[in-house]
Amino acid sequence: MSAKQLHEAIEYSKKMLIDAEAGNWKKVFDIEAQRSALLEKLFSGTSKQNNVQDMDDKIRKIIAINKKLEAITLKTRNSTGDDIASLKKGRHAVNSYQQNAFQ
User: Between residues 2 and 9, which one has the greater pLDDT?
Assistant: First the structure.
C-alpha cells in the first residue's frame, strides 16, 4: 500500500463528490470504476503493520467522502422515486380523463 496511491484514491473520491453534487452521475460512475480498480490493487498486496497505521488517516478520509457520496446518492434516488410516482399519477389522471371524455 503506497501513500501515493492512497492520495490518488482520495483525489478520485473528491472528484466523485463534486460530480455527485453537480448531478454528473456518469462521471461519478466512470471515476468510481477507476477508483475501485486502484483500491483493489492497493489492498491486494501485503502491507507492513506500521505502514497500515501511517495510512489510517487517508483511509478514514476516503470513508468520510464515501459517506457524503452515499447521502447524496440516497437523496437523489429518493427524489427520482418521488418524480416517478408523480409521473405515474399524472399518467393515470390523463388516462382516466381520456376514457371519460370520449364516452
Answer: 9
